[in-house]
Amino acid sequence: MKIVKTIKVMKETVDELRAQGKSIGFVPTMGYLHEGHLSLVREARKNNDIVVVSIYVNPAQFAPHEDLETYPRNFERDENLCAREGTDYIFYPDDQKMYPERYQTYIRVTEIEKKLCGISRPIFLKGVATVCTKLFNIVKPTHAYFGQKDYQQSLIIKQLVKDLNLDLNIVVCPIVREKDGLAMSSRNEYLSENERKEAVCLYKTWNLGKKMIEEGERNIEKIKKKMKEHIENYAFPKIDYIEIYNAEDLSEFENNAIKEGREIAIALAAMVGKTRLIDNVVFKI
Ligand code: AMP
User: Fold this and answer.
1) Is 37 a catalytic residue?
2) Taking the model in full, what pTM does it have?
3) Between the CA of residue 259 and those of 65, 207, 256, what are the distances in Å?
4) Ligand 1: nearest atom to the Cα of 174
5) Pocket of ligand 1, candidates 27, 32, 40: which has the most ligand atoms within 8 Å of its Cβ, to mutate?
6) Higher pLDDT residue, 122 or 50?
7) H or E stretch at 151
8) Residues 30 and 141 placed together within one structural domain of the fold
9) Distance 231 CA to ligand 1 centre (A)
10) pLDDT digits (tens, 9 = 90+) for 208-253
11) What CATH number has the domain bearing residue 164?
12) Protein residue with its CA nearest to atom 19 in ligand 1
């Protein structure tokens, strides 16, 4: 496994590999890897000649008051995990190379970014869209792997690939969870022991909503109200949003009523103490 720190070397390397007709599976991450990230690496390993993992805590997706400085980092550990999963290259650039002085170009996916995390974190999705476009141009993957954990992000990426006519396939992989149901996340590291116990509330809450729908409830307001009441039973969480949308494009259901035969996304975000957690489920009835 090679560690590549410059854009120039990464580009030269992938140009050569592509010229040899090799497929390149790419997993963009911010590091501090867990089983969720590794499931993407395994999927990439299974289906490509070459696997590239990027590790880059992207400053463009953090607002000034957010956790850029404290975001957990451990490159040595990440390096070992990537090697163990058969990664060929880690792309590990620094801010100077990604956003040199006078950097001024950003990508925005204008409709999808108006919903969910886009409301409380307007900078986040613009930063993600921008860094992923840059990384796609540098790594030139045939396939790029994303987790459903960040569902809105996966829709943003699919949309920009389509709109900008990029030549790669986006593969979205299932959410990997802890034993109690909590979605794995690098930010779970921030949780105190008590907060960690309560963090499962997001999982339990969407389960409640899903169950209501499966048992025949169609009124979205009623379902959201019950979900809200449920999560309020916990001591720590403060809800950012609980939404039920058409999974395809995050549009609203007509007349606030679930429609059978359509993919449904239940998405929620909450602050558990100082830690912002998200979770979702996508299903059909
Ligand atoms: P991050 O390092 O948090 O930016 O995440 C990098 C990639 O890993 C994104 O595509 C995430 O959606 C994905 N990911 C993060 N957590 C999970 C998880 N629990 N299960 C599956 N994929 C995940």
Assistant:
1) yes
2) 0.98
3) 39, 18, 9
4) 21
5) 40
6) 50
7) helix 151-163
8) yes
9) 24
10) 999 999 999 999 999 999 999 999 999 888 999 999 999 999 999 9
11) 3.40.50.620
12) 184
Among the atoms of ligand 1, which is closest to the Cα of residue 183? Answer: 19
Q: How many domains does the chain have?
A: 2
Percent over 70 (pLDDT), the chain: 100
Task: Answer yes or no: is 285 within a domain.
Answer: no
Q: What are the φ/ψ torsions at residue 187 (nearest 5 degrees)?
A: -75, -15
Distance, CA of 58 to CA of 148 (rounded, Å): 19
Q: Which residues contact residue 222 at a Cβ distance below 8 angstroms, ignoring those fewer than 6 apart?
A: 212
Full domain range(s) for residue 68: 2-173
* Model pLDDT for residues 73-126, shown as the tens digit of each residue: 999 999 999 999 999 999 999 999 999 999 999 999 999 999 999 999 989 999
Query: 28 CA distance to ligand 1 centroid (A)?
Result: 9
Ligand 1, residues at Cβ distance < 6 Å: 29-30, 36-37, 39-40, 146-147, 149-150, 173, 175-176, 183-186
**Closest ligand 1 atom to 153 CA:** 12
Strand-pairing partners, residue 263, are 284
- Distance from C-alpha of 91 to C-alpha of 77, rounded to nearest angstrom: 15
The token duo for 203 is 């999982």
- Cα(71) to ligand 1 centroid in Å equals 14
Name the closest-CA residue to atom 6, ligand 1: 29
pLDDT at 236: 85
Owner of token pair 């001591």: 235
Cα of 64 vs centre of ligand 1, distance in Å, is 22
Cross-strand pairs, 264? 246, 283
Using a pLDDT cut of 90, give the percent of the chain over it.
Answer: 99
